[in-house]
Amino acid sequence: MPRLQHLLLLCVLLIAPAAWADESPPLSVTLTPRPAADGGVDRLEVQLQFSAPEIDAADALLRMPVTLVSTPTAAYEADEIEVRDARGRLTLAAEDAEPTPEGVYRHYLADRATEGEVTVTYAVTPRAVSSETRNGPLFDLRAQDGGLMGAGVYFFALPVVETPYRISLNWDLSALPEGARGVWSFGEGERSVTAPASTLAFSFYAVGAVASEPEAGADDFALYWLSHPPFDIEDVAAGTRALYTYMSEFFDDPGAPYRVFIRENPYPAGGGTALAQSFMFGYGAGGETTSDGLQMLLAHEMAHNWPRLNGGDPHALTAWYTEGTAEFYSSLLALRAGLLDSGEFLDIINRRADAYYANPHIRLSNEQAGQIFWSDSRAQRIPYGRGFIYLANVDAQVRAASDGARSLDDLVVTVLARQKAGETVGLSDWVALLQAEIGDEAQAGFDGMIAGQALAPHPDSFGPCLRPVQVSHRPFQLGFDEMRLGVVADLLPESAAARAGLAEGDEILSITPVREAQGDEDRMMEMTIRRDGATYGVSYLPRGEPVSGWRWERVDGAPDSACAL
Q1: Is the CB of residue 227 less than 8 Å from the CB of residue 144?
Q2: Cβ partners under 8 Å of residue 240, min gap 6
Q3: Beta-carbon neighbour count of residue 400 at 10 Å?
Q4: Whole-model pTM?
Q5: How much of the chain is helix, strand and coil, in % rounded to 5?
Q6: What percent of the chain has pLDDT over 90?
């Protein structure tokens, strides 16, 4: 199951420098969960208070997405939001902006100019999901055992003004049973932060009968869930904390707080989404997460907390860096931290190479792939593989040019340091940094990558322990939408799945774990489906036609120490 696009560049957290805090206007948020008859949470009431926004008549006071990267939101009608200021009640009108590749935003326009403090109230109910719900970014608000969990982007209609606010967030849990908890990406209970209002949207929330590891939570690092997951949560927490500690030190951000939210899906698939100082991952009833498994999913998501380009370039043109650095460093830092051995590392990078070379969109430019990110999951994967191979090559080129004294690490850490100092670093800045290391070939290599040139691994990539070799293999092809594993949707008519007898709309009752089928080219996909009230068994080899690509192999006699790049 391919990992989900993380939307990190849409969700960049811009925490204001401390010097701005006293100058920023206040934004007070109160979240009040209301109990359901079954003891869970029925709805979440939201109240916002902010002073003197000075919005003129017919101007947008609030906004929220209607859909964001194929995921629907609460998308309130105008009369579902109550707004009051010093003069009394305001009437809103809703106006949807033109669609973009990422989705559609709705603006709420005031019928008159605002005066003084504004109070906004509305309520949201959780999204109803089933085995047929399409897997996607973990944005929606869902009900699970005794509570709610999801991202703010699903339920927040927020001030349009994007200057920093002094945000204070409080939970009113008085209507819930004793022991109920309210958790935000920035911590549990009442919390304050100076940041744009959009930070509230692009962060995670959990409320109700929330469990955690450690049990009492923690200000620096904790995991939270509602439904107890079918794996050893203490072991996951220990490994995740160890890797996060190693990563935060590598990226020169030691002690940075982080929170992990975990929820169950009603379909046999997982995935993850990184937002502000946190991420959420989902799992299927059997513990399914992604093709790389839980540990690599967590590592990838944690890596998203740091490397990014912030020069204002379009998301489609910078996703290779965001996703490529996450793919590269999630595996490499796990190896360096001793959480992977050299064999596991080799298996992971080869699966990433296989996915890249087998992708039918491998020749699309970054811009062309970006145009279909949200309608074709295969296009979403282009930045992952392309960025991974490109950065592995850059690492080898920099090491060669400096006789091993420097590496990709130096460039990535330099980008972060400049951003922490308040600079913006975009695509042209990246090329300039690389040119200073390897000369004119920096521009040529970059241009080929963004244009969709199929990349071959540098001979010394991941050396001297490993070497790239050209191979031919049959790529994994499930034959239908891999982001819906409760129902057969978007069946490819030329696929082995269609030839085996699957039909559009078949209900999937059982299926071979996708991760197992991806990892073994001879593994049959065994399925039980229901159609028109009857149950059928279907078996097929989920592979496409052979493609040429590259993998790495171990250099004979190379010790494990040679793999610790």
Answers
A1: yes
A2: 223, 260, 298, 302
A3: 14
A4: 0.80
A5: 30, 25, 45
A6: 66
